[in-house]
Input
Amino acid sequence: MNRTIRIARGSIAIGIVVLGLKTLAWWLTGSVALLSDALESTVNVATALAALIAIRIAQRPADPGHPYGHHKAEFLSAVLEGVMIIVAAMLILQEAYHGIRNPRPLDAPVLGLAINALAGIVNAVWCGVLIRQGQRLKSPALVADGRHLLSDVVTSAGVILGVALAAATGHAILDPILAAGVAVNILWSGWKVMTASLGGLMDEAVSDDMLRDIRATISDHAAGAIEAHDLRTRHAGSMTFIDFHLVVDGDTPVAQAHAICDRIEAALKRKLDDAQITIHVEPEHKAKHSGVLVI
Output
């Protein structure tokens, strides 16, 4: 079992523990805001499970039906997570509406808030692990899960502050109003998760910094060629796809042109562990005198 899958499984376990703590906090207090926090944790468990399934699918090798691999499965998971976050926000808004119409005083607020704070601390530690490891392992599903948990941590902090204020002042209506504010924040979080993932599904190019590195690497290792043009990139999960045209002298033997391509591919793969590179060799009359000039 690789590290990405171990982390994804850990997310499910952590999500269940946090959900249990937040549900207990709501049960003790009857707070609509704490119920909203617990509902978001329900989504955390479901999306952690979806992320694990997507990661397992994404790591399958290419096959005749999917010759480019299954890497985009992780982006689908992240989009699904965004949708589920939005659904959770709608449920919270419904509970907040009923709470505003019929506000009720809180029970055992101190104990309930303490338990909810413990759940928030667990989430804070784990979201840091997910974001760092997701970026290191190039896993969109883990990064999306971590960013969602980060929004949950911020939400929990706001909920604890707001519920404490409602309990201290005796203004019970502050509790459902706070829950409505939580729902709006969750909606924004879901939107950001979805838009970030849609870029990968739409074959978004690599970042400008990475593109500069790719261009420099081609230029530095293409001795014997004239230029490289029509450079295109896209990313799918941990995989980066690169293709371009390499112009060589028309009299260059096939074996020598192939050796240049091999040298460029090896250099690019040292920069990008998971890269699939396609190079189309062309004679010098196809030169465009643009793109990547060989130094």
User: Anything to note?
Assistant: Helices lie at 3-29, 32-58, 73-101, 109-136, 140-169, 174-201, 208-221, 254-271.
